[in-house]
Amino acid sequence: MSRRPAGLTLLLHALLAGGAVLMLAPYVWMVSSSFKPSAEIYSATIQLIPRHPIVDNYRTAVHREPVVRAILNSLVVASAETLAVVVTSVFTAYPFARLRFRGRDAVFLMVLGTMMIPAQVTMIPTFILMRWLGWIDTYQGLIVPRIMTPLGIFLMRQFLLTLPRELEEAARIDGCGRLRTLVQVLVPHLGPAMATLAIFTFTASWNEFFWPLIVVQSSEMRTIQLLIAALKQAEAVEWGVVMAVVTLSVFPTVVIYLALQRYFVKGIVMSGLRG
Amino acid sequence: MGGRQILREEARFGWLSLSPALGFFGLFVGFPIVYAFYLSFHEWNMMSPEPTWVGLDNYAALLRDETFIRSLVQTAVFTVGITGCLVVFSLATALLLDQKLKQIRLYRTIYYLPAVTSVVAVGIVWLWIFDPQYGLLNQVLRGLGVAGPRWLADTRLALGCLVVTAAWRNVGYFATIFLAGLQGIDTMYYEAARIDGAGAWGCFRRITWPLLRPTTLFVVVMSVILSFQVFALVYVMTGGGPDGATSVVVFYLYQQAFTYFRMGYAAAIGYVLFGAIFVLTLLQFRFFGRHLEV
Q1: How far is B232 from chain A (nearest CA, A)?
Q2: B42 - beta bridge partners?
Q3: Which regions in chain B score pLDDT beneath 70?
């Protein structure tokens, strides 16, 4: 590859940079609109950088709309879900990866098979179940149906399979029970795996729309995604304010992604290819 | 402890640690699947205490429901459009990202960014980009001296706009999968081909494309499954409009269930969707499977 002519390198850069502009332009447009006074928002000339940047849109968003509450709701739901999914995935993946018993593989296939079922099929009965439990419009209702995922169990099992058997055998000989062996010997080796799953789950939960839309009814229980959708339904959409809220909603996932991107890539590769 | 005892202990501990998962999936997947099937033979608005049995009426009504058929067709159009776009653009992006350049990490970071952004945020920002008067797109076109169309308000263009938006969000995700596939190909093949005098196109056609087939299968299957379930984008960007031009199956299902409270009818739509995804997935495996053996 070292003998690539300079012209080709230039062409590659041109193509990649062109694509990068397409990828970034919507973000620039979003952030720039959020800092524009309405005179500039509703002006018929291209203005990528606001001429007179203001923070009024953010101020309006925070004072008039329940943005803070919505972000807190999303934080509560996403954190609880993430913690739960990591814990349940480790405990459920362990027997699939490290124990031998009849029926194990059949159950594992069934768990994976649930990934095939579209969420829309199970959604109506789950909604009825939540209503019966009195969990509509509650945190439990938002969180509990999502505390276990087949993908989480699958990812954890893949990582567990890579650990050597000797690791737990030594502990067993010393008289360590299964649970202690799992928690004290195996879990410390799962750090990167658990981080990958945690970041994946947090981002997915933060971005989730369908289930919250169904289970949430009051404006206080809205997650940030629901609030954005609600702002857009308003009679006259105020694009400056909407873009401010969207910018705030995108910020946490972008920061997490930029700081921890190697985990994202690892997660995709694991979930996609090592079936 | 004897060998048999250990095995028995493994089984006991195994089932014990699986029991929460079995309970969970039983309650949140098993029960809903069965209950949705039961509901699909009933009529129920959730107000009356009991669903009323209607037999196959819901399914029969679906066959005659023109709005439903239309939403099915539009879902298929969306799925074909987005899957085509994703295979072409994701693979092209992956080939570019596979090159040895100093700034390649930066490019990879940028291309994947939309995939971590919520569909709702993406939908709203593109809605604003597509705004006929003040949106970025028509402002650029105006700068070039072209009068831009009304995009999402145009019945002929709206679905295409959704395809563009969905492609923009997912191209980086699928490019990452293709990239992993590309990096799994042994460079030995290319070296041998180059000695035989193969050019870049020959290498791609004879080595890269055939060896990427399992990855392509995964990308196509995933894209079809995800596209058949498209919802948030429609909900946020068009609400099914203009004039029903972007109504897709899941959006129609949602409306039937939570706008008109026709739970039985919605459950039947859910089962039709399930069946369609299942059949499409099987077909893709057969189609690609045949080529895989070559």
Answers
A1: 7
A2: B53
A3: 1-3, 289-294
pTM: 0.91
Q: Cβ distance B152 to B220 under 8 Å?
A: no
Asked if A16's CB is within 8 angstroms of B11's CB, the reply is: no
Distance (Å, whole) CA B149 – CA B161: 11
Task: Specify the higher pLDDT residue, A197 or A170.
Answer: A197
**Residue B112 contacts A where some CB pair is shorter than 8 Å:** yes
Find the CB nearest A148 among B21, B35, B107.
B21
For residue A267 the two structure tokens come to: 């997660």
Residues in chain B: 294
Average pLDDT over chain A reads 89
Q: Which amino acid is at A30?
A: M
CB-nearest to A272 from B218, B228, B271 is B218
Q: What pLDDT digit, counting tens, does each position of B220-247 carry?
A: 999 999 999 999 999 999 999 899 999 9
- State the Cα–Cα distance between residues A245 and B125, nearest whole angstrom: 11
Say how far apart CA B279 and CA B205 lie, in whole Å. Answer: 30
List of chain B residues whose C-beta atoms are within 8 Å of the C-beta of residue A12: 96, 99, 101
Tally C-beta pairs within 8 A across A and B. 245
pLDDT of residue B290: 63
Helix axes B263-292, B249-258, angle to 10 degrees: 160
Phi/psi of residue B52, nearest 5 degrees: -100, 135
Chain A CB within 8 Å of residue B127 CB: yes
- DSSP letters spanning A169-221: HHHHHTT--HHHIIIIIIGGGGHHHHHHHHHHHHHHHHH--HHHHHH--SSTT
Structure tokens belonging to residue A118 = 């579209």
* Chain-chain contact of A257 with B22 (C-beta, under 8 angstroms): no
pLDDT band at A235 (very low <50, low <70, confident <90, very high): low
**Beta carbons within 8 Å of B229's beta carbon, 6+ residues apart:** A118, A119, A120, B250, B273, B277
End-to-end CA distance of chain B: 51
Read off the pLDDT of residues A111-142 as tens digits, 9 standing for 90 and up: 988 888 888 899 999 999 999 999 999 999 99
Q: Are B75 and B248 in contact (CB under 8 A)?
A: yes
- Collapsing DSSP to helix, strand or coil, B43 comes out as strand
Q: Classify each residue of A133-168 as buried b or exposed e, where b means 16 or more C-beta atoms within 10 Å of its C-beta.
A: eebbeeeebbbbbbbbbbbbbbbbbbbbeebeeeeb
Helix, strand, coil shares of chain A as percentages rounded to 5? 75, 0, 25
Half-sphere exposure of A141 (CA within 13 A, CB side): 24
Partner-chain contact B111 A249, CB within 8 Å: no
B45 touches chain A (CB under 8 A): no
In this structure, chain A runs to a length of 275
Q: What is the ipTM of this complex?
A: 0.91
A chain contacts of residue B222, beta-carbon cutoff 8 Å: 272
Task: Spell out which residues of chain B touch residue A242, defining contact as CB-CB under 8 Å.
Answer: 124, 128
Res. A80: pLDDT tops 90? yes
On the question of pLDDT at A3 being above 90, the answer is: no
